[in-house]
Give the backbone structure.
Amino acid sequence: MKKNLILVVLLGLNVMTNSCNEKKLTEVQVPLPEKEEVNKAMGNPADIIANVGAFKMMLLPYSYDALEPFIDAKTMEVHYSKHHLGYINKLNETIAGTELEKLTIEEILKSLDIENQTLRNNAGGYYNHNLFWGNMSSKGGGEPIGSLNNAIKKDFGSFADFKIQLTETANKQFGSGWAWLVTDKTGKLSIVGTANQDNPLMPNIGVTGTPILALDVWEHAYYLKYQNKRNSYVEAFFNVINWKAVEKRYDETIKKELPIKVQ
Ligand code: MN
């Protein structure tokens, strides 16, 4: 109490002194960094270049902070400029000087010897992330329309049932991996999970289909913002799904009856 009283007296003296000196008290606002400055500090996705090799970085189709608040800018920056760059450089290094350099990433995956762990991890990492970046958007979320909407209703019952299944698959994947929406050549949809950087195009991994939607459930995809709460990240992911891109991939896959290129 006594302390408070002293403080009030001191404040009073301060005001008096100021008024005597005719000093004006003005509110000073600490400027917040402009959005552009934040992006500058983060770096620009376009500046991330893979080492010389067969495969190049797919340009991120949005800024690092575009998916906020669902996926934070720092996670996107580290994920794209460190993890993804690492997969590409390692892939290029692994296939340098071999016949594989002439193949598409889909051809490499489909003809993969799964005993070749380095190629399996890095070819998978390259393909999986390209699909993942492309199936998200700041204008994402909601539900698909048209052909994909019809197929989801036919194969899962409803969009809500589809969401439950994808969520369960993503949350129950033990350790690092991916959850996928895949289609077969007839347009029938299913949801599958894979470990590490495996994906359904690879032979002999226990799941099949052409991926049309990829969900990264490695901790590096969410840990900075969500820590151990993978389920919160998975829930948030539904707000950024670029359904137009997913539906385009679905239509093209059935039309061509071939996996379409991610890059
Ligand atoms: Mn990842």
About this structure: The chain is about 50% helix and 10% strand.
